[in-house]
Amino acid sequence: MPRGELLYSADDPTLQKAWLTCGAEMNWGSYFALAMLPFLVRFVQSIRRYKDSKLPTHLINAGKYGMGIVHYFCYYLWRRDGESDGGASFVMWCLAAVVYSLYGCAWDFAMDWSICKPRAKYPLLRRDLVYTSQIPLYYVALVMNLVIRFLWVFYIPSWSYFNLRSFICSLMEMIRRVVWNFYRLENEHLGNMDQYRITRECPLPYSVDNPQQEDEEDEEDKA
């Protein structure tokens, strides 16, 4: 191929569009189905838990996963259209992503971590804490969770290295979930103590007083 034709092919809008869509133009439905499957499973589980317990919090949780499905639908619809910075699909995706990120952060902070309590010793935290020697890490985790929830803006610029951006975003999401697990486990532990499922000190079925005192009491009883 002559050099001129090669340069023309590199600037061909059709090829550039194919590079941006990265095969998603024809198969975007299957990509969306795979991406939304975990959200659909958790959505059905939350509806089932609401049906069994009648607690409205499960409906709110189901709404979070439902919003996640809408977010991914709008995202792959935008990718199908070539990832342009304008158009209806781009606006729909941005709106859905903002709502889903705020929804997820609110649920993380209010329900999964139970922080942002009004009368806590440390601002934006809660009254009871397990990791009392690592108070600054609570704030690091709070900011990290908020920032990574909005990391989807990293996909907006229409420059190359899309695979690298996807890798970085996926890696950061994995880190967020690891950190999330620590504080979710802490909140679950404190919740179990509040409901007396577990206690800080397990009472023993016998006395653990001074043995000498017990011997003296036994001698007094015999006398």
Automatic annotation (TrEMBL):
Domain of life: Eukaryota
Annotated compartments: Membrane
GO CC annotations, alphabetized: Golgi apparatus; plasma membrane
GO BP term, example: cellular response to phosphate starvation
Entry keyword annotation includes Membrane: yes
The UniProt record lists the keyword Membrane: yes
Membrane-protein topology: Multi-pass membrane protein
One GO MF term: inositol hexakisphosphate binding
Pfam families: EXS
Domain EXS: 22-216
Entry's transmembrane regions: 28-47, 59-78, 90-115, 136-156
Keywords carried by this UniProt record: Membrane, Transmembrane, Transmembrane helix
Database matches in PANTHER family: SOLUTE CARRIER FAMILY 53 MEMBER 1 (PTHR10783:SF103), XENOTROPIC AND POLYTROPIC RETROVIRUS RECEPTOR 1-RELATED (PTHR10783)
The protein's name in its UniProt record: EXS-domain-containing protein
